[in-house]
Amino acid sequence: MAGVGSAVRRLYLSVYNWVVFFGWAQVLYYAVLALRETGHEAVYAAVERPLQLAQTAAIMEILHGLVVYFLIGLVRSPVSATLPQIGSRLFLTWGVLWSFPETQSHILVSSLVISWSITETIRYSFFGMKEAFGSAPSWLLWLRYSTFMLLYPTGITSEVGLIYIALPYMKASEKYCLRMPNKWNFSYDYYYSSLLALLIYVPGSPHMYRYMLSQRKKALSKAKAA
Amino acid sequence: MKVTVVSRSGREVVKGGIDLKDSAKVADLQEAIHARTKKYYPSRQRLTLPLQPGKGGKPVVLSPKASLSEYCEKGSGSLTVVFKDLGPQVYYSTLFFFEYLGPLIIYPMFYYLPVYKFFGYEGERVIHPVQTYAMYYWCFHYFKRIMETFFVHRFSHATSPLSNVFRNCAYYWTFGAYIAYYCNHPLYTPVSDLQMKIGFGFGILCQIANFYCHILLRNLRNPSGSGGYQIPRGFLFNIVTCANYTTEIYQWIGFNIATQTVAGYIFLVVAASIMTNWALGKHSRLKKASLFDGKDGRPKYPRRWVIFPPFL
């Protein structure tokens, strides 16, 4: 039973990782194509669908992490590291870019989408290789644990920049806001929540960066010892 | 006897060790370490016996009131202890005082001061009776907590790490402001008079019950603070292990029924989950094999709800 179980797990994770890999590869390809043929204003329209699909599919990864508590354990990444990452990605994809079209023609969309898609194609092919073949080539391991050093700063800067640009549109449109008076004496302001999100980037970014640095140390020294 | 004090990495914390009388207690050792190291006053020290290599499990913590000889290997006149610095400590009473003081002061600020002008709400504010009662209820609650901190509670540990002050104050003060903002809002919508009376009435009953639970818990511990676990008995403790948490949660339910704010309910859920976590730990500690398992003449811990009949 255990043998069948882990084979199913491996098959599922291989398929998942390779499918999402192709999603992100598409994003990267269309982004670069649009950038070269037209210009940065056209990048969003070119990548919208594959971006939304590939990014939203990542919710599965929260489930994979949670399954740890109930079954044998699907993946090793802690929920505390995946949740903020996926949270910020979904916020940008749906809560900023899709909700406020005024942001879509900005040049930061290009840097965002290219940073994300390079990172994700490396990451998903790395996991895809490990699940399908048992191990990943050392150059891919190196890429996986090194490119973040450039791509985290470029990606985070793009995220913060785009949220900042969207702020006036959030305020003016009152989108996603709930006002008083109401029976439940509750209110929600999307503009202020986004400001709060921006504030969270201040301690959050060094935290994520340091986490990746410590993961890098562990992974690369383990590879050396092997 | 000779005591060697090492850090977890093996380095000697007190060079040359410490010489003490054979009859010395752990507290004497802590005083001696403090004398030699200046920085590490006793409540900052965590002393454990070295773990045997290969053996798992948690290290044995030295209890301050015990004799050092209890921890020595039989026959030898020496002892090695592992030292861990717990960081700067504050008294639990200090910690509780500051975390409760925040809500006590912040909530009335939203009630009495023209705070909402800064949020863009000009003009006169109509204050509904329920908002006044809510302010009194809230302030009484935190006043009660402060009084209990100084006159009722007997703490198992005297101190808590300093970092907890910041963490706990952030929790209480932020939620206090968040709830106070909505409860005192110029556009606040009150519930029916009947619902308000039911909410506050139930809440007050639960606060009284909660106070009585605290008195019962106090009487389980003797004044010298010698600690140790007892089976709580009497009143609601006969049916539920952590009746004090139960009554506290129900008391917040009462407040929320009367005031009806999403912010209040969010706080209720968060507070209830924190307390449930504690209750599960307490319940399992009390049922633990070496304490109340009914064997060797020990009393057996009775079957009881943990915190929330009939669910948990």
Automatic annotation (TrEMBL), chain A:
Subcellular locations according to the entry: Endoplasmic reticulum membrane; Membrane
Chief subcellular location: endoplasmic reticulum
Single GO cellular component term: endoplasmic reticulum membrane
Associated pathway: Lipid metabolism; fatty acid biosynthesis
GO biological process entries: fatty acid elongation; sphingolipid biosynthetic process; very long-chain fatty acid biosynthetic process
E.C. designation(s): 4.2.1.134
Entry GO MF terms: very-long-chain (3R)-3-hydroxyacyl-CoA dehydratase activity
Keyword terms: Endoplasmic reticulum, Fatty acid biosynthesis, Fatty acid metabolism, Lipid biosynthesis, Lipid metabolism, Lyase, Membrane, Transmembrane, Transmembrane helix
InterPro entries: Tyr_Pase-like_PTPLA (IPR007482)
Chain ranges passing through the membrane: 12-33, 53-75, 148-170, 190-209
Family indicated by similarity: Belongs to the very long-chain fatty acids dehydratase HACD family.
Protein name: Very-long-chain (3R)-3-hydroxyacyl-CoA dehydratase
The organism of origin for this protein: Paspalum notatum var. saurae
UniProtKB/TrEMBL annotation, chain B:
Main location: membrane
GO cellular component, one term: membrane
Keywords, ordered alphabetically: Lipid biosynthesis, Lipid metabolism, Membrane, Oxidoreductase, Transmembrane, Transmembrane helix
Transmembrane segments: 90-113, 198-217, 262-280
Domain of life: Eukaryota
InterPro entries: 3-oxo-5_a-steroid_4-DH_C, SRD5A/TECR
GO biological process: very long-chain fatty acid biosynthetic process
Family: Belongs to the steroid 5-alpha reductase family.
Protein name (Swiss-Prot/TrEMBL): 3-oxo-5-alpha-steroid 4-dehydrogenase C-terminal domain-containing protein
